[in-house]
């Protein structure tokens, strides 16, 4: 029982007659307040202490920081609180930084909570763990595992989605719920694996190989809810990263929250900020797709209607032209011109024919004048000896030579009496 007076105010020093913790017994137990006051007084005498370690947690709430510092060489850590007034005087710090901090132990009497308040903190460089991760990051980048050119595209509408996550985890429920809200017919093939601890890497690799070998799985999501960086280390393990890089199926990394960034995010084909984001980026929204189809259909209908209206207007415009409205007018309006052109053509042809006829008659007359038949018609004759030799000299037809004489009309046979000798009287 306690022996505090009824007028004692909690939080104030206990009265002098209260039972001290060292004097407590089953019959005279001390109070919780007395015990807490004793612990508080003991902790107050510690004062401030400088400690060295690696920041493993850094959460900002209401302007203040609540985090943890891990010992660099042992499996030990402490929680700390950093007021906003102190935070403004510090450099930019983050998880993984190697720091030294001036801390003062605080024990709250009312709640019995123990923490350390940071009054100063200095950046000493990268922590061992973060340094190892940065070396691995540089190595994988040099090998091209972060190269965007090797990233495989995510299918627009996967037939089946492979999901690697913790059994009965919030991440699994988030992915399923959001994917089914977006596309109710979505299919999953889920492989459960430990998402932290020593089993995380081998189980995740085994699940990845099983899903990657399944021909029905079009994309694989590796999902885990948020947590401190220490619990996410498995998703920066080199063995898992190389297994992801070697997979033939597109991989989506959905580890932690927006600020978490394991190396899996860099090696995976797509990085989602959360498991919910992964479901939204892998599965299309059926409502959006229906709206898009309706929009495209409306645009197509509008374009076709516009084109048909334009073509109908053009056709009507052509039909109203005089040439198409009354085609015979083209001939009627030019009938006189056609008649004149026809008459002019007939005159030209007749003149040409008359000139050609006259020229033909002239040529015929000239030919007749030069023709041997015309000469024979005037009384001349042609004598042939030996069948085809024209007699041009009387010596060619001696007496007794048989001649063929051709006259204007026909030929006759003759017998030569020889050359006729002319007398002087004949010459006269």
Polypeptide structure, described:
With 428 residues, the chain is α/β, with parallel strands linked by helices. The chain has 4 domains: 46-126, OB fold (Dihydrolipoamide Acetyltransferase, E2P); 132-149 and 157-284, Rossmann fold (3-Layer(aba) Sandwich), CATH 3.40.50.261; 286-322; 375-423, no CATH class. The chain has 14 helices and 14 strands. It has a 5-stranded mixed beta barrel with strand order 1-2-3-5-4. A 5-stranded parallel sheet has the order 7-6-8-9-10, with helices on both faces. Strand 11 and strand 12 (389-390) form a beta hairpin. Helix 4 (170-182) runs parallel beside helix 8 (275-282) and helix 5 packs parallel to helix 6 (238-246). The chain is rod-shaped. The termini are far apart. The relative contact order is 0.06.
Supply the CATH architecture of the largest domain.
3-Layer(aba) Sandwich
What's the CATH superfamily of the largest domain, by name?
Succinyl-CoA synthetase domains
Report the helical percentage. 25-40%
Shape: rod-shaped
The CATH topology of the largest domain comes to Rossmann fold
Number of strands: 14
SSE order, as H and E?
Answer: HEEEHEEHEHEHEHEHEHHHHHHEEEEH
The total number of structural domains is 4
